Amino acid sequence: MESKLLLENQKICILGLGYVGLPLAVEFGKKYQTIGFDINKGRISELKDGKDSTLEISSDELKKVKRLEFTSELNEISDSNIYIVTVPTPIDNNKTPDLTPLESASATVAQVLSVGDIVIFESTVYPGATEEVCIPIIERISGLKFNVDFFAGYSPERINPGDKVNTLTNIKKVTSGSTQTIATVIDELYNSIIHAGTHKASSIKVAEAAKVIENTQRDVNIALINELSIIFNKLDVDTLEVLEAAGTKWNFLPFRPGLVGGHCIGVDPYYLTHKAQTVGYHPEMILAGRRLNDGMGAYVVSQLVKEMLKKRIHIEGANVLIMGLTFKENCPDLRNTKVVDIISELKEYNINVDVTDPWCSSEEAKTEYGLTLKSDLSTNHYDAVIVAVAHNTFKELGVEYIRSLSKKNSVIYDLKYLFPSESVDMRL
Question: What is the pTM of this model?
Answer without folding.
Answer: 0.91
